[in-house]
Write a structure and sequence with these properties.
4-stranded parallel beta sheet, alpha/beta, about 30% helix, 9 helices, about 230 residues
């Protein structure tokens, strides 16, 4: 914290939480740095093309539901086993949890009540973000999909924004904690291809996956990196 200002950094859902928070324009928020976010929680993440994402989306939700059950966290179980009666009592609140998995099954259509569907879609709210933004995403995120690039044009509320787009999986989307959003260029910049750190990791990966071949794919040549020089 500096001059009573704070910043938000998050990967995956914490990154989306930062987008939601920033869109409310809290007065003491200085900047956000996010990665691995999604653009639309219902249409592109939970039900892409109208089909339930029973892979990552439902599995992730089920995991969070299990952790949200009474005593679902290791920390709370240890507290209760250690005799913390207040913690045990507070866990009774968890009996009121909504069964999201059941609700997904029972509600196959885009929710319009109270505008829930659009309110859960960062693409509809990022225009209200006024602070500097650093956003890192991949073109084909295996968890949240590759739609994030389509919402970048919606960041109209701030001139200080930088978008780094690359190849790879969600873990490669982590925003560097040492990056300064406040010092980012006022213009939007993108990486339309993978940086060298990603490119150089591919030959060994190919070699392992094709271990039945006698040729060494680790020596596979790549074009010159046009982002250097």
């Amino acid at each position: 914290m500096k001059d009573h200002k704070v910043g938000l950094v998050g990967l995956s859902y914490p990154g989306n939480a930062a987008l939601y928070a920033a869109s409310t324009q809290p007065p003491h928020l200085a900047a956000i740095a996010v990665g691995g976010t999604y653009d639309d929680g219902f249409r592109n993440l939970l039900r892409p093309s109208g089909i339930v994402n029973s892979g990552f989306a439902k599995q992730w939700i089920k995991g969070r539901e299990d952790e949200a059950e009474a005593g679902g966290q290791d920390y709370t179980r240890k507290r209760i086993e250690g005799g913390d009666e207040i913690c045990a009592f507070n866990q009774k609140l968890r009996t009121q949890n909504i069964d999201l998995t059941q609700r997904i099954e029972e509600n196959p259509y885009f929710p319009t009540l109270l505008g829930l569907g659009n309110r859960f879609a960062p693409a509809t709210i990022v225009s209200r973000i006024k602070v500097p933004v650093l956003l890192v995403a991949t073109w084909h995120d295996e968890q949240v999909g590759g739609h994030v690039p389509t919402m970048l044009k919606n960041f109209t509320g701030t001139s200080k924004k930088r978008f780094l787009l690359t190849n790879g999986a969600t873990p490669r989307c982590s925003p560097c904690p040492t990056s300064s959003c406040a010092g980012a260029s006022s213009s939007t910049s993108m990486w339309p291809s993978a940086p060298r750190t990603t490119r150089s990791s591919r030959p060994p990966l190919l070699h392992r996956r094709r271990g039945d071949r006698s040729d060494d794919l680790g020596t596979l040549p790549f074009p010159a990196n046009r982002f250097e020089g």
